[in-house]
């Protein structure tokens, strides 16, 4: 049961803020040899050219900003033209930046990678700031004034001029004229202090798509405000950011709650004159002064929060009252907010203390204005926390309307998703798979461009062949790997050998066989006493099977870092998993050489996964599933029960990107195999990894031949991950160096969260339709109607809803199809399953309500339904009785038990385990990551995914619907789910296609739910909920519970709020 839920979250101080790209492409690992290119690489034709370098970045326009204006009473600053630019802090890290925008560099007059934009020299007790209207976005509408905590003291005396602006990434158009903004009355800023702001807590606002909301009265600083209440129970003291809110009297200023949808470009420069928050340590240090001559003071860092969401944070600087960060953030946002908060905190062993806060109103930056300067830090009393204490920062918002690189499709950008750990690799081949096995001729033939035909691959047969033909290495990662699984079944003249036997045979041939398998903490094998784990991963069985062979198996627990508390270590080890699923082998490259090939996707090599597009329930129980029955929905006597059909997506990568998959394995293996305890006393140890530089036959990544750019079958592929430094060896410990590898700096951890980055970029770039299959669909809880502080903070659902809303506003067609399981794997009446269903229901309703507001805004709510744009589906099957059925000798009770009812009705859901997305028939993402917080955050489950497209089969190249392999793959998936092919399927965004698919799914649901047993041709069912015209999602009349097995379809939530199931 590959469940990636039911577990707690780990605090991520950077839930979707992304680091900066390095100035150079990702370097290959040091163990890659430098061979000259081979003369040829079978089975491909000869490639005369080497692997092409990435395209040069574009040069953005210049920007301008005026000299700063002082606060009242502050001495005037020196004129900017004569002031020298600040020198970069010695050893400072390159600026942080969201990975999606590294291909858009700053203006050439500044070194964007090494130094921030020039700012005036700030002196103690002198507060300067200025802003520049760059013309981005629309001016927010004026609303009636209402009370709100004051912040105008920080923003008075603003002005515009034609002075050069700090660089923005991506930039917005420069202002064409200077203009003076009206001055605001000097009043005290909003105050935040000492109560919890969790990175998992969002406090969103419901609003019309464009009309801003008013944030009425003073900011709620009480404990009842979900933005600032205590953190979930599974957030460790080290990672929890504790502070309280102190109420402030009402002001005469009203702040509007506006939709921030675009990017925030932020610089955190430095802080001055911070107070010493370590008073206990200071007192003890004074007492023992002769033993502690060095000064002990605050360990400051800065958190950036939008509403209740922490979107970025700096690294901690120890013992400094004048810290210098010079860190850059370019963060995607999709939030309703009134203010952006910069919280300077003191990191302590058991948490953190608020030092002071700077609050920037959203309406002041909404039009593209850049605000920058040295701002006073305000404490819980609404006054400066210390005389002269302040934070130097700059911030600029660029709306989606001004991010032009999203406007031309996901396949337009030749650099892929920039700023990630692994770059886009050009050249190679990709094979896309549906299910573990596809019988020849079982799916329709699809004609592609260039008179090609889509070939339906058979995943497990291809994996079996790849392992069988390996000569040097076989590396496997899995949530579960079972030695008894048979990859090839039911084929004449083919012996059914188990995976374990095959791997032993290959290791005896001298092939290096290494397995990285998640160590389920609930499974144990102590002195011969075996206890199968709760998740039934067979990890101990598999290790025992290979114990006396040359196959090396590492059972790898999900571990926290050394600096985490004992409680946190137990939590991480018990709750989180290693969820990646990869197979890496060497394969024939021609001319006596061999290259690396990799399989990536959602299929584990274990029981319950083998299935075909027909998804039988009973008919194969005595044949291919006779030793592979899997259905965790039922407990007790399983005789006569239907098996759980399994639908999945997988891929094979043959080309340079396969080496990045191998790098991921090597980094994880080195971390997992690191010696501990007495093993450290050894002078050396063998890490078991094959060093390919010592094998002349093996090509390195630099030796990989590149397909000709004119080859219509070529692919561009990029590898993404969700993983942190506790699971890999090779991430720098120094935040400055980590930024160079595009890693996010967390508290005591470095994070690669490029999977979330890839999804956001693909959704924002989509022009016609999005098709998603995923095991879970939970996110953007900050915009739910309730439970806003749940912590499911990934942007994916909100980005999809806003994409549809923008297309409605532009009066363009757009459609989204989302396929997920009928219920999460397990007992549907269980509390964990019910909570997941409840969170999914809240996610669906938030999206539908956003779409309705967009329709209402343009007056189309009467002409179109919200389901003309967004639909949710599930899969199910029903079989008529057959003489080939094998229901076993014993039958469950024919009473009202789930087993008896399912046997009688002869129906069951098809479990959707896929983790994939197709955009505009040109781009595909496939991997192990679910759409929930566990998979996207990077500090929870470890994940891997690939994103790929064929450059000759994109909208930008064809100027029409692409008809490449991605198109063939989607059409094949739809043929499997719908049972037939229709010409309307070729235009998924069309209203005719949307309504036709929805009508077919409704008919299939009626057949599935009927009391009469009948054979089902199509498997795609409408998700069994009713959506009213305004987006309210409720139970389908007559079907409040799932047929046969029970459990509320819309879920339920009765317990204490937690984040175990998000």
Notes on the structure:
- The protein is of the alpha+beta class and 1062 residues long.
- The protein is 16% helix and 21% strand.
- The chain has 16 helices and 36 strands.
- The strands form 7 sheets. Strands 12, 23, 24, 25, 26, 27, 28, 29, 31, 32, 33 and 34 form a 12-stranded mixed beta sheet that branches.
- A hairpin with a 3-residue loop joins β31 (915-919) and β32.
- α10 (796-809) packs parallel to α11.
Report mean pLDDT, rounded to a whole number.
Answer: 78
Helix content: 10-25%
Gross morphology is: globular
Number of strands: 36
User: Uncertain runs with pLDDT below 50, 5 residues or more?
Assistant: 4-252, 283-293
Largest sheet: 12 strands, mixed
Into which percentage range does the β-strand content fall? 15-25%
Q: How big is the Rg?
A: 29 Å
Distance, first to last CA: 17 Å
Number of helices: 16
Which structural class do the helices and strands define? alpha+beta
What's the SSE blueprint?
Layout: E1 69-70, E2 128-132, E3 213-215, E4 255-272, H1 279-287, E5 300-306, E6 309-313, E7 324-337, E8 339-348, E9 351-361, H2 362-365, E10 370-376, E11 390-399, E12 425-426, E13 429-434, H3 459-469, E14 473-478, H4 499-508, E15 512-518, E16 524-526, E17 529-531, H5 539-545, E18 552-556, H6 566-575, E19 582-590, E20 593-601, E21 646-647, E22 649-654, H7 657-672, E23 716-724, H8 735-740, E24 744-746, E25 749-753, H9 754-765, E26 769-774, H10 796-809, E27 815-819, H11 831-857, E28 870-878, H12 898-905, E29 907-909, E30 911-912, E31 915-919, E32 923-927, H13 933-936, E33 943-949, H14 955-958, H15 965-978, H16 991-1009, E34 1020-1022, E35 1025-1027, E36 1033-1035
Parallel strand pairs: 14-15, 15-18, 21-30, 26-27, 27-28
Antiparallel strand pairs: 1-2, 2-10, 3-4, 4-7, 4-11, 5-6, 5-8, 8-9, 10-11, 12-23, 13-22, 14-19, 16-17, 19-20, 20-22, 23-25, 23-33, 24-25, 26-31, 28-29, 28-34, 31-32, 32-33, 35-36
Helix pairs in contact: 9-10, 10-11
């Amino acid at each position: 049961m590959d469940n990636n839920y039911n577990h707690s979250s780990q605090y991520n101080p950077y839930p979707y803020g992304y680091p900066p790209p390095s100035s150079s492409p990702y370097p290959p690992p040091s163990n890659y040899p430098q061979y000259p290119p081979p003369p040829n690489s079978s089975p491909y034709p000869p490639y005369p050219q080497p692997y092409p370098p990435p395209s040069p970045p574009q040069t953005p326009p210049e920007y301008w900003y005026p000299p700063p204006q002082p606060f009242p009473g502050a001495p005037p600053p020196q004129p900017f033209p004569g002031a020298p630019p600040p020198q970069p802090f010695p050893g400072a890290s390159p600026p942080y930046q969201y990975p999606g925008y590294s291909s858009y560099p700053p203006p050439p007059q500044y070194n964007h990678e090494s130094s921030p934009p020039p700012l005036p020299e700030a002196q103690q007790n002198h507060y300067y700031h200025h802003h520049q209207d760059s013309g981005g976005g629309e001016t927010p509408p004026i609303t009636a004034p209402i009370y709100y905590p004051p912040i105008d003291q920080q923003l008075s005396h603003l002005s515009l001029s034609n002075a050069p602006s700090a660089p923005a990434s991506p930039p917005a158009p420069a202002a064409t004229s200077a203009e003076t903004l009206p001055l605001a009355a000097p009043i005290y800023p909003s105050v935040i202090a000492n109560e919890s702001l969790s990175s998992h807590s969002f406090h969103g606002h419901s609003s019309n798509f464009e009309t801003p909301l008013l944030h009425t009265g003073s900011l709620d600083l009480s404990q009842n405000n979900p933005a600032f209440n205590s953190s979930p129970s599974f957030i460790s003291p080290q990672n929890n950011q504790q502070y309280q809110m102190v109420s402030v009297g009402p002001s005469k200023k009203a702040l509007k709650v506006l939709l921030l949808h675009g990017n925030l470009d932020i610089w955190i420069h430095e802080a001055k004159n911070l107070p010493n928050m370590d008073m206990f340590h200071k007192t003890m240090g004074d007492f023992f002064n002769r033993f502690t001559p060095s000064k002990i003071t605050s360990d400051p860092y800065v958190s950036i929060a939008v509403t209740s969401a922490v979107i970025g944070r700096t690294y901690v600087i120890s013992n400094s009252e004048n810290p210098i960060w010079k860190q850059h953030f370019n963060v995607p946002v999709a939030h309703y907010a009134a203010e952006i908060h910069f919280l300077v905190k003191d990191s302590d062993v058991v948490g953190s203390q608020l030092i002071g806060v700077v609050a920037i109103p959203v309406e002041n930056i909404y039009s593209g204005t850049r605000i920058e300067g040295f701002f006073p830090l305000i404490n819980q009393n609404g006054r400066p926390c210390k005389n002269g204490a302040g934070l130097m920062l700059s911030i600029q918002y660029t709306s989606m309307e001004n991010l032009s690189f999203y406007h031309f499709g996901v396949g337009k950008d030749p650099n892929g998703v920039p700023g990630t750990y692994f770059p886009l690799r050009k050249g190679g081949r990709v094979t896309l798979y549906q299910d573990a096995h596809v019988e020849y001729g079982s799916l329709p033939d699809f004609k592609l461009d260039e008179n090609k035909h889509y070939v339906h691959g058979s995943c497990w047969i291809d994996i079996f062949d790849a392992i069988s033909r390996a000569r040097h290495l076989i590396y496997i990662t899995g949530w579960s790997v079972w030695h008894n699984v048979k990859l090839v079944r039911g084929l004449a003249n083919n012996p059914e050998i188990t995976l374990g036997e095959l791997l032993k045979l290959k290791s005896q041939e001298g092939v290096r066989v290494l397995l990285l398998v998640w160590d389920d903490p609930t499974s144990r094998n102590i002195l011969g006493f075996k206890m199968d784990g709760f998740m039934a991963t067979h990890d101990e069985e598999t290790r025992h099977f290979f114990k006396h062979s040359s196959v090396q198996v590492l059972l790898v627990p999900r571990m926290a870092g050394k600096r985490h508390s004992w409680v946190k270590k137990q939590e991480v080890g018990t709750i989180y998993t290693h969820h990646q699923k990869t197979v890496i082998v060497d394969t024939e490259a021609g001319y006596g050489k061999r290259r690396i090939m990799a399989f990536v996707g959602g299929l584990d090599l274990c029981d319950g996964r083998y299935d075909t597009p027909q998804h039988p329930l009973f008919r194969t129980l005595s044949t291919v599933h006779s030793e592979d029955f899997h259905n965790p929905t039922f407990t007790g006597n399983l005789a006569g029960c239907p098996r759980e059909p399994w639908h999945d997506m997988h891929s094979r990568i043959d080309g340079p990107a396969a080496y990045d998959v191998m790098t991921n394995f090597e980094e994880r293996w080195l971390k997992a195999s690191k010696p501990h305890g007495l093993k450290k006393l050894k002078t050396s140890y063998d890490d078991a990894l094959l060093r390919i530089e010592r094998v002349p036959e093996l090509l390195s990544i630099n030796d990989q031949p590149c397909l000709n750019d004119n080859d219509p079958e070529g692919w561009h592929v990029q590898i993404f991950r969700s993983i942190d430094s506790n699971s890999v060896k090779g991430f720098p410990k120094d935040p400055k160096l980590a930024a160079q590898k595009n890693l996010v700096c967390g508290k005591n951890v470095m994070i690669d969260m490029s999977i979330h980055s890839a999804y956001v970029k693909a959704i924002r770039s989509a022009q016609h339709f999005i098709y998603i299959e995923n095991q879970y669909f939970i996110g953007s809880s900050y915009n739910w109607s309730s439970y806003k502080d749940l912590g499911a903070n990934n942007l994916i659902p909100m980005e999809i809803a806003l994409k549809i809303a923008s297309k409605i506003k532009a009066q363009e067609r757009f459609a989204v199809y989302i396929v997920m399981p009928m219920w999460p794997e397990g007992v549907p009446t269980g509390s964990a399953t019910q909570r997941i269903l409840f969170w999914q229901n809240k996610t669906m309703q938030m999206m539908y309500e956003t779409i309705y507001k967009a329709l209402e805004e343009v007056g189309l709510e009467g002409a179109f339904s919200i389901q003309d744009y967004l639909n949710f589906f599930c899969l199910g099957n029903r079989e008529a009785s057959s003489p080939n059925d094998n229901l076993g000798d014993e039958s469950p009770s024919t009473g009202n038990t789930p087993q008896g009812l399912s046997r009688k009705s002869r129906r069951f859901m098809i479990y959707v385990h896929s983790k994939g997305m197709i955009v505009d028939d040109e781009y595909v993402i496939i991997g192990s990551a679910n759409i929930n917080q566990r998979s996207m955050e990077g500090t929870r489950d470890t994940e891997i995914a690939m994103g790929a497209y064929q450059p000759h089969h994109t909208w930008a190249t064809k100027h029409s619907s692409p008809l490449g392999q991605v198109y063939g793959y989607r059409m094949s998936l739809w043929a499997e789910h719908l049972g037939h092919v229709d010409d309307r399927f070729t235009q998924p965004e069309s209203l005719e296609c949307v309504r036709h698919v929805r009508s077919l799914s409704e008919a299939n649901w009626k057949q599935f739910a009927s009391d009469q047993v009948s054979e089902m041709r199509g498997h795609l069912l409408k998700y069994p909920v009713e959506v009213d015209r305004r987006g309210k999602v409720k139970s389908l009349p007559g079907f409040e519970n799932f047929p046969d097995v029970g459990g509320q379809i819309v879920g339920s939530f009765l317990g204490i709020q937690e984040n175990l199931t998000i």
